[in-house]
Amino acid sequence: MYCAHFDAKRCLSCHWLSKPYAAQLSEKQQQLTSLLAPFNTPELLVPVASSEQGFRYKAKMVVLGTVDAPMLGIINAQGESVDLADCPLYPAAFAPVFALCKAFISRTNLTPYDIASRRGELKFILLSQSLHSGRFMLRFVLRSKNCLASIQKHLPWLIQQLPELAVCSVNLQPLPAAVLEGEEEILLTEQSVLAEQLNQIPLYLQPQSFFQTQPAMAASLYQTAADWVNELQQVQGQFKHIWDLFCGVGGFGLHLVSPEQQLTGIEIAPKAIASATRSAAELGLTKVNFQALDSTAFAKAAERAPDLLVVNPPRRGLGKPLCQDIERLAPAWLLYSSCNAQTLAQDLSQLSNYSLVKVQLFDMFAHSSHYEVLTLLKKLD
């Protein structure tokens, strides 16, 4: 992938872009092999490669410049404002939407927020697109409600220009700190969710619910998990009860469960749980129970293990307390999806009663050192 911003050293976010993509993938596989070497890892499966550009369906853009000449991008290490509306990581459909956002900023007199002076109103533009429908969710992160009326007044113009806009909202982030978004979300459209569909599984994304930045790779990740579990059940028999901890909008659990099986999904965010529950209902799943709870607290209070435990923690990993409860509960099988191989290795050292059966790398974040890992673990006899 060629990027003029990287070539000019204006933006180095894709810090591995100077390496050929095949070399990037090989280096990631080598790093993963090294991290998992202490755990008697079977041979790692072939990594799942990413598209090299146009794969990122979620943009987080700092709003810079002026009302008359707004910019969407970053402030780089040199303190320069860099417009990334033409960033090749995004699909082609993002560029005209960014252009409309700039026109909307000027039309509504939305002053870009200035960190140094702590003046201005608009801090970020957050844009997501559904791979399935091509529709968009657009969020304006504001310092206050001062410009809310102006946004509401001119929103019909934006929707007329962009009929693919499904969801639009304002997020209030009043703190003068490097925090992406605040707790309060003000919905501006009748529709509150962006519909996605991966592998014929409906998923619903609300403004503050987490979803992978690369839906094509997420689909591959979920399908691989389903394939591994199906292969396992052909030998072991069908699991009666599955837990999905850190379940988000239900991506893993809904791919794994059949109508005859029980699924318990746990996620701290109520809006994500509402989305997962809606998806389960559409699929006609009646033995599914999604709950808005802390995953570590849920496991600590549990007395009986599921047949299969699925975990997809944030970058910090499971942590010692949750690993201890997994050891205590001792589910026969553990499916662990990680976005941080270092914390995965730390957690595996705590899960001494489990052995690795399968490991596969998914290159969710091309041109960077980050990647996703899917592992299948079996409880030792």
UniProtKB/TrEMBL annotation:
One of its GO terms (biological process) is methylation. The active site is at C339. Its EC number is 2.1.1.189. One of its GO terms (molecular function) is methyltransferase activity. S-adenosyl-L-methionine binds at Q212, F246, E267, N312. Belongs to the class I-like SAM-binding methyltransferase superfamily. RNA M5U methyltransferase family. This is 23S rRNA (uracil(747)-C(5))-methyltransferase RlmC.
